[in-house]
Amino acid sequence: MISSYTRMRPIVIFFSQSGNTKKVAFSIYEGVKDFIGRCRLVSIGLVNQEELKNYDLIGIGSPVWGGVPAHVRRFINRAPELSGRYAFSFCTHGAKPERFFPQMARLLTKKGLTLIGMEDWYGSVFHPLLPKPYLTDGHPDEIDLREAYEFGMRIAQMAVKIANGEEVPLPTLPPPPPPRTVKRLYPKLSLIKERCKFPECQLCVYHCRLRVIDLSKNPPKFPRVCQPCYFCEMICPEGAIEINYEEDSAIEIERARTLFIKSLEDAERAGRFRRLVPLHEVGWDTPFYKLYDTHPRIVPEEEIDIGD
């Protein structure tokens, strides 16, 4: 179905580290495009904030990192005033998305955007400190991606109706985010100079979302405090970045046992979560960093910019 309102220009912007959000974003993009007739899908690192003024419908999605990732917040904060345009948001996560939409709603409405939809999906987890297999591994699956496509169709239909002067019920803005219930762990990074191939290789510098790694300094500059995503260590092909995972992994796995299991059980009872990995198959004794013990542990997702 293609809407007759072909003047509307939609864009779906996403950040994806492991590929979960990219899959969901593509399905949403397909749904929007099939209804309106066109759409642009772009990685957050390939779009300039000033470009957002050229679009009428703006979608932004990312994984949940205790809330909205810091670099995604920075991207939105640096955007121009966008009054008169419509926005929607989406995320992927491994158990607890509660802080994401309250933060995202305030970021978007502060720019003058009218928020018309929000949705979340579970995703497989590739965090070095957490169990592998993980509690939500296997998501997003075909069912999830079909839901994402339908979400894109609904969002496009709502935007067109509003633009045509029809009254459409808008979502209630979520209350302020709840306080953090756990203390964030910050990795201590060190560089093994003998292994590092800088400046020929600058993967960690490019993929540091906060742009706080500088290997041209002597000694090399690593952040004392970061998101933290551990991505620099995981993607280094030479294993030149060193982190002592042992102690922090025990803390994170205990959190997964005490907090995440209950959260997922509650979601399962409410019909919001489909368990694909039985609890007895969760790798409590095999955190990701032990199971994937050669470098790179993970390969960065390719950034994309497709459609209009």
Indicate the structural class: alpha/beta
CATH class of the domain at 10-178 and 302-307: Alpha Beta
- Stretches where pLDDT is under 50 for at least 5 consecutive residues are none
Strands of the widest sheet, in order across it, are 5-4-3-1-2-8
- Would you count the extended β strands for me? 8
Strand content: 5-15%
Give the overall shape, derived from the CA principal axes. Answer: globular
Oligomer: single chain
Cα Rg: 20 Å
Short description:
The chain has 308 residues and is of the alpha/beta class. Helix content is 31%, strand content 13%.
Detailed description of the structure:
Strand 4, helix 3 and strand 5 form a beta-alpha-beta unit. The chain starts with 9 loop residues before the first strand and ends with a strand. The protein has a domain of 175 residues: 3-Layer(aba) Sandwich (Rossmann fold). The strands form two sheets. It has a six-stranded mixed beta sheet, sandwiched between helices. The mean pLDDT is 93. It is globular. The protein is 31% helix and 13% strand. The protein is of the alpha/beta class. It contains eight helices and eight strands; from the N terminus they run βαββαβαβαβααβααβ.
Task: Record keyword descriptors for this entry.
about 300 residues; 6-stranded mixed β-sheet; single chain; about 15% strand; globular; 8 strands; about 30% helix; alpha/beta; two-stranded antiparallel sheet; Rossmann fold
List the helices and strands and how they pair.
Elements: E1 10-14, H1 20-36, E2 40-43, E3 57-63, H2 70-77, E4 86-93, H3 100-110, E5 114-122, H4 142-163, E6 190-191, H5 203-207, H6 231-235, E7 241-242, H7 246-269, H8 288-291, E8 305-307
Parallel strand pairs: 1-2, 1-3, 3-4, 4-5
Antiparallel strand pairs: 2-8, 6-7
Helix pairs in contact: 1-4
